[in-house]
Specification:
- This protein is α+β, with helices and mostly antiparallel strands.
- The protein has one domain: Glutaredoxin (3-Layer(aba) Sandwich).
- The chain has six helices and four strands.
- A four-stranded mixed sheet has the order 2-1-3-4, with helices on both faces.
- Strand 3 and strand 4 form a beta hairpin.
- The chain starts with a helix and ends with a helix.
């Protein structure tokens, strides 16, 4: 990693992720909707990123992992936890700004688990209706 890359990463958020993880899209959607700049590092495409992630996450490839500009590391944060951490950064005088609630709902709904749960609930409701009728 070059000095420029290190300086760039200390000035903004760094998000480690990989394709297929259902927790990564809500975090990225939230940051995008809130207009917060971040660098995304795909650990499947970038071997150095995978090594760095394992150093941050006690040897695991836990994604998403978010590194805040102040160096705080959030391993597998949900949107609510990330939002709280950003709010604390803002209160500490960071230039990140409190993103507020913008994007929180959309970020939560971008998790692919929710449509599957909706289908299961619908199937269950139909099964109960057929069984009792």
């Amino acid at each position: 990693m070059t000095q420029d890359q290190t300086e760039d990463q200390t000035n903004q958020l760094l998000v480690y992720g990989r394709p297929g993880c259902p927790m990564v899209p809500p975090v990225r959607t939230y940051l995008d909707e809130a207009g917060i700049a971040y660098t995304y590092r795909d650990i499947r495409q970038d071997a150095d990123a995978a090594v760095q992630l394992r150093q941050l996450a006690n040897g695991f490839e836990s994604v998403p992992t978010v590194v805040l500009p102040n160096g705080r590391v959030l391993v597998e944060p949900g949107v609510a936890r990330l939002r709280q951490a950003l709010k604390e950064l803002d209160e500490a005088g960071s230039e990140m700004g409190d993103p507020g609630l913008g994007g929180t709902l959309k970020a939560g709904l971008s998790n692919p688990v929710y449509p599957v749960l909706l289908l299961i609930a619908l199937a269950l409701a139909v099964a109960i209706a057929l069984a009792s009728g």
